[in-house]
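Hello again,

I reread your note about wanting to compare the complex against the isolated chains. To keep things tidy I'm splitting this into two emails, and this first one only covers the full assembly. Below are the input lines as submitted, including protein chains and any nucleic acid or small-molecule components. They are followed by the predicted structure of everything together. The single-chain runs will come separately.
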Amino acid sequence: MPDVLIHAGTLDCAEMRHEIPAAILDPFLYGEHDGAAFALLSVLDEGSVREVRPEVEIVDPLELGLMDLLEQGMDRDAALTEIALRACERAGLRSAVVPRRFPLGIADRLRAGGIELAVDGAQFDGRRRVKAGAELEGVRRAARAAGAGMAAAAALLASAEPGGDGTLQAGGEPLTAERVQAEVRAAFELAGAVGDEVLVAPGPQGATGHDLGSGPIAAGVPVVVDLWPQDRASRCWADMTRTFVAGEPADDVVRWHNLCRDALARVLDALAPGVTGRELWEVCCDVFEAAGEPTQRDPQGRTPLRDGFFHSLGHGVGLEVHEAPGLGRSGEALVAGDVVAIEPGLYRHGYGGVRIEDLFLVTEDGYEALTSFSLEMRP
Amino acid sequence: MPDVLIHAGTLDCAEMRHEIPAAILDPFLYGEHDGAAFALLSVLDEGSVREVRPEVEIVDPLELGLMDLLEQGMDRDAALTEIALRACERAGLRSAVVPRRFPLGIADRLRAGGIELAVDGAQFDGRRRVKAGAELEGVRRAARAAGAGMAAAAALLASAEPGGDGTLQAGGEPLTAERVQAEVRAAFELAGAVGDEVLVAPGPQGATGHDLGSGPIAAGVPVVVDLWPQDRASRCWADMTRTFVAGEPADDVVRWHNLCRDALARVLDALAPGVTGRELWEVCCDVFEAAGEPTQRDPQGRTPLRDGFFHSLGHGVGLEVHEAPGLGRSGEALVAGDVVAIEPGLYRHGYGGVRIEDLFLVTEDGYEALTSFSLEMRP
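Full-complex prediction:
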């Protein structure tokens, strides 16, 4: 096992959160030398670390001379960077692997001070691949929050009636994407989760992939509801999508929806340890291409696609919404303990789209579904 | 103006969010060459960028050969890194300044490809120092959310009565830190803000600085309520603290609270463009040391302090909760447009503490208070 360095807070860096599962806002240095871990951080955060990783040695920046550097007129960031080098020297660490996002400002100073650093993203992805214990429990709670949010969105859409102008009304008021988003957020909150971004994208907004959606919802158009709540206690995520139509769906939307369900079912037949993410993606492309839909696999897919299946089949989910393993062109072999979101989708630019997505734990003998909600298009 | 590169998503990187004020989860490359901006990102996110920065040239990774690299067996991260180099070459960018947290994984490849990178954190801090327009409006909304959260916390504490065992009861149930936190979060939500972490720390928990607080609240102990909501629309933050006592406070807590109010008033007398953060911190240290309280300035402050005034006086607030300018030992001169949180505090380890904090906009002729709530200790 090589020595390791990470420099980040625990609220916005999965690599750090995995090592120190506690809430620490400000970035700090975490290291492992010959298997012994140390953390360079203020006494303010010492208790939080001791609670979750009592064996980690806490090094206080003040003990390494921070105040003297500041008194000499060094700015705070430069001084903290200098202290990071001193902490490595004190630990006897001479070389380390670091995550892809290791900050260049720290890296340049450590290297100038003689510490060898090598980026090894796969090493850190690998540490987080197999979910177990508190992280798996956190994903399960987030998945339940996603289901609660989906139920809230479906209930509001189901209660709606078309008004005179063809847009939906609910409770005497126009039904907007924002109203659905607010209901979803309230459901997340009750489930101990938070979702800053909630995608409720009607009609053409649902065909762009990342438009969060806004404004009135028309009857008969597909509404993509893509939810990725984060469990507050563990900072673990889930990811789940349904597409609903309140009113009568168009024929092509019905066709897309059936194709997505078929694709998901075919992919699940193959989901088990050993299959590669690429193989799963190809299963989905097979289904869609056989129905005449463009995918990124066929030659026309080499230019940016705006119609058909223009994204990958999915991704790992854990302390990041998007993490290893990938389920696309470069997808590697799955292992038991992987948590993967599988999300077939079909779209036409300027018109609308359909996507369904569930979250699965890969098990020794197949998989276990973590998210749960009806796959019907009618809410 | 030097050429610039940033590599991040907009949801967790203030430098990027300042340039592209839209919601983009996945990290991407943003560059400026001879004053012209480009962004390397998927067509999925193109619309979001066009809406806020129509002049930014969008470069699609697929146009630069991403699929060929993946077909050749390169893993996705390596391929995207290679494409980042191609995007710089295409733009004619040969050297750039980057933020401190620029990811080492990208930096190493760009440098190997002949692009010179220099970390210049101050350049990016400077871009965000003066708040105006949408960001200032966002800070104002976050500050109102903080006030609403504080009112909710105070109302719940004010409604409480001591039970037989000395802990507070409200509505027939024990009053816990978690209940207060839930009320605060609900108030944030109604104000369009989100606060993953809400600090409600009674007694000894309030003396450690960063313990978020948990469990029953006893009558007569100081409860530190430190709120830092983030405005959902702009991703801008506010920061605000009050310390409440439900019941009769101890004499030393009353003395600390009066000292903190005195210190805040003395600091505000000096708050204006041109004063340095260090000078403001010294004003606060003067007040506390004259009352016999230890600070980081006096010689005993060179070892880690656990009692007295053990942190700095404050910090800038904007797209980060903690950003430039600092109000401590290395604090530089303030300018009109700075938004600063000022937070004098006094503590005794294992016993409790008092902190009060408000947010101020530095103006040409002094300051404007952005947060607003009673400074009384009784809720």
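For quick reference: Chain A touches chain B through 68 residues (CB under 8 Å).

B.
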